Amino acid sequence: MSTKAHSSKPGKGISGRSEVNVWPSDTIERTILEQDIRIAEILPNKELDLLVILLNTRDVVRVPLSAYTALAKADAKSLANWQLLGEGYGVHWPDLDEHLSLKGFLRDAMMSEFLHQWGRPGPSRTKRVKVRA
């Protein structure tokens, strides 16, 4: 008995004679597709070292600009010039030749939140925190 069943879900299909399961095995990708999550708007703020990603679900993702080298070095005009890719699954900054994905933003935001909850600075921060035993 095959573990890969036919489905009407997007992303599953048959290629040639053998079944191919192209439904994403990655949890973040699966969530994006199942919940139809897309980027709706990008709001960069250099002064606050903040990139706000507004989603079509009315959720907000916040990541530090400094987490992305090209964005951290960019001026406000270049940051404001962005384009959605793949119907909102990614974003492109033509002036910076930078392409970033919704999956990456969600992954980075989750990691940042995890580190914040544990009292440790994220990878983009330079401040060191002394941990007492």
Give a short synopsis of this structure:
This protein is α+β, with helices and mostly antiparallel strands and 133 residues long. The chain has helices at residues 27-34, 69-73, 76-80, 102-117, and strands at 12-15, 18-21, 39-45, 50-55, 60-63, 83-85, 90-93, 98-101.
Notes on the protein architecture:
17% of the residues are buried. The strands form three sheets. The chain has a three-stranded antiparallel beta sheet with strand order 3-4-5. Strands 6-7-8 form a three-stranded antiparallel beta sheet. A two-stranded antiparallel sheet has the order 1-2. The protein is an alpha+beta fold and 133 residues long. The chain has a domain at 39-117: Uncharacterised protein PF10387, DUF2442 (NE0471 N-terminal domain-like). The N and C termini lie far apart (54 Å). It has helices at residues 27-34, 69-73, 76-80, 102-117, and strands at 12-15, 18-21, 39-45, 50-55, 60-63, 83-85, 90-93, 98-101. It is 26% helix and 27% strand.
Task: Give the SSE layout.
Blueprint: E1 12-15, E2 18-21, H1 27-34, E3 39-45, E4 50-55, E5 60-63, H2 69-73, H3 76-80, E6 83-85, E7 90-93, E8 98-101, H4 102-117
Antiparallel strand pairs: 1-2, 3-4, 4-5, 6-7, 7-8
* Beta strands, count: 8
CATH architectural grouping of the domain at 39-117: 2-Layer Sandwich
Order of SSEs: EEHEEEHHEEEH
CATH class of the domain at 39-117: Alpha Beta
The percentage helix is: 25-40%
Alpha-carbon distance between the two ends: 54 Å
Q: Tally the helices.
A: 4
Overall mean pLDDT stands at 79
Please give the radius of gyration in angstroms: 18 Å
What strand order characterises the main sheet? 3-4-5
SS-derived structural category: alpha+beta
CATH level 4 superfamily of the domain at 39-117: Uncharacterised protein PF10387, DUF2442
